[in-house]
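Run Pentatricopeptide repeat-containing protein through structure prediction, thanks.
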Amino acid sequence: MRRNSVSPDFHTYPFVLKACGLLENTLLLAETIHSDLVKLGLLVDVFVCNTLACTYSRGGDVVSLEKVFEGSLFRDVVSYNVMIDGIVKAGEIDKAREVFDEMPERDAVSWGTLLAGYAKLNRCVEAIELFDHMVDLEVKFDNVALVSYLSACAHLGELEKGKMIHDHIRRDGIKLDLYLGTALVDLYAKCGCIEMAKEVFNSCRLKNVSLWNAMLAGLAMHGHGIPLLQYFSRMVENGIKPDGVTILALLVGCSHSGLINEARTIFSEMESVYRVPRELKHYGCMADLLGRAGLIKEAVEMIREMPMVGDVFVWGGLLGGCKIHGNLEVAEVAAKRVMEVKPEDGGVYSVLAHMYANSHRWDDLVKVRRLRDCRWGIKKSAGCSLIELDGIKHEFVSGDCLHVHTDEIYFVLHCLELHQYEAL
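Sure, done. The structure for Pentatricopeptide repeat-containing protein is below.
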């Protein structure tokens, strides 16, 4: 066009910017076009402005995106949606919420984008609150919002809320696509409703690796080892190629079910048969599995043959097995490695101290406690459990005394302890 002395206008540049988004040097081209738009005074056009902002958003340049947004003379709902999407992708969800709250009007994309951001960043309480607000305002939600909400429910164990959405999907005849199907299977599986998870899984005509993984992970989580392997066989027979998540679910399931030989076979074949590269998480799972089974020597040999340096999960898995079977010699090596990788992890000091006490090595017990006390930032995560009764969720943290029924709870626990001692 330029060689033929034809000047581009506000109709031309949006197409050029969309083409830029398909190239590797997106941001460099976008900056060049941005300069042209400023010189030609074309940024007064809201469509041109939105397309430029969208290009920066796709390229991950939040600073330039904000400059375009703040400098635009006219903004519509698309302008805000692009801005929110870019900020959410950058992980700045609170800033995205500020922009969302400033919007003069919102559409389903606005709500869905923010909701997806909350769910992706595991801000699940905010995700559920936002969705409930959508329902109160009678905002029509799309599948993106439904998937994000179900994901948040699964993470928090909000089974009843998830069931309500499933009822809504069936009642309104919403097509159960791969994303919705996977979200529902994940919800039911994580909440222990394996039969419902199977029912949803079987109702999905199309199944991809994500849907299979959700089903496999649910079976693994609840120790259904044999059904897990049966579903995996079906997956392979249906021509679905497993990935790293698939193998991890299988190893976890085998560990929970004590299927040592099956785990060995899967771990051995994951690269040679399934072409899935081994990662630290797979080695960590195998170290935990072998350690629990008392196969400490085999676990140590596996770690030595690893092509990469072990992380806290690999050495921590071995340490856990050593604690169970009282192998203090290997435990000391594993604990030292964990301390090198993650010195602020208080759990490793507790495990080692406990093992020293059981072996009556009091001097070493004192040393490890002093080592723990002299290091800054040492922390041990408190145990936490949740239970829902009559629609009310109760959270219990180790050592907590803030619950309204604390006195009654500790009284019952004390009675249970007395019964236990009497039984002995």
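The longest strand covers residues 384-389.
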